[in-house]
Amino acid sequence: MSTAPRTPSDLLAAALRRDPAAPLVTAYDDATGERVELSATTLANWVAKTANLLQDEFDVGPGSTVAVALPVHWQTAAVLLGTWSCGAAVLDTAAEDDGRLDAADVVLAAQDRLPPLEEQDLPDLMGLSLHPLGLGMAGYAGPARDFALEVRGHGDVFTPYVPPDPSSPGLTAGGPGLTLGGLADAAGELARRLGVVPGDRVLVDEATAVEAGPVAWLLAPLAGGASLVLCRHADPAALRARAEAERVTATLGLRIEGIRELGRPV
């Protein structure tokens, strides 16, 4: 007997049950030429390590807020899902708005966004190199703790001290916000409205994802039983060949002839 997802963690758990070994997130960066592919099992491993780090080192749990000053990236997916696994709320600042970070209990930021943050009176600060192999921050000598170096020492299985409460805050991003349960519900409803179907391979570019937010670029595809192809600094000339190589069946916010665009009538 199946039950409806109650929190974002349930969406990842469902992907693990469907096919633990199949690609779940494939990430490209056309500025660096990198390509990283994560199965559901590998992503869940990163999520568990991230959640253990947040819980054990920063006491993150229900009632906590984690600011995420990160671009659309496979490591960002792990940070978001790790935070929600702890039962905490995400303060999403992917659109480069760092003005509200002092409201968070811990801040996770891309290395290139650390210098101005170090001058603010912020809570605990961690930096991410976003290296394709998960390596640490090269050449960094500031006060931020290095996410990549610290996360690898944490366990591959996560058990929250307090189980996530679906009624607890889950996301704040310049609006009224959503609860953890509201995130799961919104993801399911958006997947239905967009027309995501099980087995879809959804291509999303960074600009669309930043504008749409994590419910659209991360949670809705998970809720619909789809996998993701994320593109940073996308080269428009490369998208058709990439879509063909990755067997993309749908796009979010992009028009590629012959491939359906989610949310648009066929």
Secondary structure elements and pairings:
Layout: H1 8-18, E1 23-29, E2 34-39, H2 40-58, E3 65-69, H3 74-85, E4 89-92, E5 106-110, H4 114-118, E6 124-128, E7 145-146, H5 147-151, E8 169-172, E9 178-179, H6 180-194, E10 201-205, H7 206-212, H8 214-223, E11 227-232, H9 239-245, E12 250-252, E13 260-261
Parallel strand pairs: 1-11, 3-4, 3-5, 4-8, 5-6, 6-7, 10-11, 10-12, 12-13
Antiparallel strand pairs: 1-2, 8-9
Organism: Geodermatophilus obscurus
InterPro entries: ANL_N_sf, Rv3268
Protein name: TIGR03089 family protein
Describe the structure.
InterPro entries: ANL_N_sf, Rv3268. This is TIGR03089 family protein. By secondary structure, the chain is of the alpha/beta class. It has one domain (8-261): Rossmann fold. It is 34% helix and 21% strand. It contains nine helices and 13 strands. The protein has helices at 8-18, 40-58, 74-85, 114-118, 147-151, 180-194, 206-212, 214-223, 239-245; strands at 23-29, 34-39, 65-69, 89-92, 106-110, 124-128, 145-146, 169-172, 178-179, 201-205, 227-232, 250-252, 260-261. The protein has a seven-stranded mixed beta sheet. Strand 8 (169-172) and strand 9 form a beta hairpin. The longest helix is centred in the N-terminal third of the chain and has 19 residues, at 40-58. The radius of gyration is 17 Å and the shape is globular. The mean pLDDT is 92.
